[in-house]
Structure formats: structure tokens, C-alpha cells
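Exam prep: given the inputs below (a chain plus S-adenosylmethionine), describe the expected output before reading on.
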Amino acid sequence: MKLYDDISEYYREIFPVADSLKNFFKSLAKPNYDKTLLDVGCGTGDFIFNISDYYSSLVGVDIDKSMLSIAKKRQKTNSSFVNSSMLNLERNFNNQTFDIISCIGNTLVHLNNIDEINSTFKQMAGLMSNNSCLIIQIINYDRIVDNKINFLPTIETQNLIFKREYELVDESRSVIFNTLLKEKSGKFQKSNSIKLLTLRLNELKALAEYNGLGVESVYSGFDKANFDIGNSVRTVVKLIKS
Ligand SMILES: C[S@@+](CC[C@H](N)C(=O)[O-])C[C@H]1O[C@@H](n2cnc3c(N)ncnc32)[C@H](O)[C@@H]1O
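Solution:
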């Protein structure tokens, strides 16, 4: 994917792993810190490396070779990485189960349509045992669509500026996500556009429940703050296989 090929080298600087994210997954790993985790759309693997001390084994899957090559270079003994689409989880992890599956950082909405999300949930559920949990984190698209929000806040780091705009299309079923990454000293400037699905919370819940995944909690972030459909920027959903 051109967007991720272009930003992979800078991804860790733009999106550092927050303490709240680390603590959320540390708490899921309790009490024995011996659980297994599958991170779907793992990108550069930074999230996995930040929590690897709390899990017995961690596997990351990503479709983008540039992102994954950074993860593979930094691989730890209890982590491994697979280059695959989340649409092929069943084929890649036949007969395996995981205690925790994560799909965070707005990854799920990179799929093309509701049928693909349904297929991914079905395949994820197939890799879970009873009481395994799935954590999904996406942008709150109810807020984006209902309030016609056309940008996400610009991210500024020591060296970089990352601008993000949204253009609602397909009768608001999707957004075109336009990004501009600039190096502050003017060394480079990279612009990209990708289409993302504007998945609403009720659609996510219905698809999950259809596949045997019950909604345990919905938060507005990994700090477990209350979710407000009209105002929260992000949606974090904890689903349990029953
Ligand atoms: C915004 S990044 C999030 C990365 C990481 N999860 C995080 O939270 O920082 C989205 C990731 O999803 C990956 N991705 C997009 N479509 C995918 C697919 N069909 N299967 C697996 N990964 C995919 C991209 O390559 C990219 O690494």
C-alpha cells in the first residue's frame, strides 16, 4: 500500500505507543502473563514489542511488506510476523487459537466492504476459544459522518508534520483519507490518499454478534474513558467469544 510504504520509516515517530494502550493489554494479560496474542494489522510491530514481556507468544500479521520489514528486523524471541491480509487468517493460522486478538489503530476499516468485515470477524472468531477476547479500535465514524468532520488533528513531532483530511464519499459509506507527511527541514513531502470504510458502532456490534462475539465494553480510548457516540474521537470495543 503506497501510504504505508511511504510512511513506514517514520511510523514510530508519528504514532508512538501510548502508556494507556500498553497498560490496557498488560491488564488483559493478568494474572499469569502466559497468554497468546495475535495482532492483526500489526504495522511496524511497535505495539507488540511494547507488550511482549506480558505475553508468552505474540504474532503480528500485516499486508504491507514495508511496515512488516521494520517489525521483522526488530523481532524478539517470543514474537513472529506473517505477511498476509486479514482476509486470509484462516488459511494462515489453521487450527491455532489465541487468547487475545487485537486489531487496533483503525486497521479494520481498511477492508473494502461490510462483507469483508464479516468474513474477517468470522475468521477471527475461528481462532478464538471460549472466553478469548477481541479488541477492536477504530475512529468513531458515527461522529465523522453525522457531524461531517473533514479532518483529524494534525500530528507534529520533533522532525515531522503529518496532516490528515477526510472526504466523505459513496453516500458517506466511505471516506477518502488524504495525508501529507512533511519533514520540517523541507527534505521531503509525501502525499497519499486511501479509501476507508465509515463503519458505525451498531454495524460493528451486529457483525461481531452475528459471528458469536459478544460486546463486553465500549470505550472512547485505552484509558477506558466513557464512550460518547457524538463526541468521542475513537472507539475501542472489547468482544468476548461465548
Ligand atoms: C493505521 S496502520 C495501524 C498499525 C498498527 N495496528 C497501529 O496501531 O499502529 C494500519 C495497518 O493496517 C494494515 N492493513 C491494511 N489492510 C490490511 C489487510 N487487509 N490485512 C492486514 N493488514 C492490513 C496496513 O498495512 C497498516 O500497517
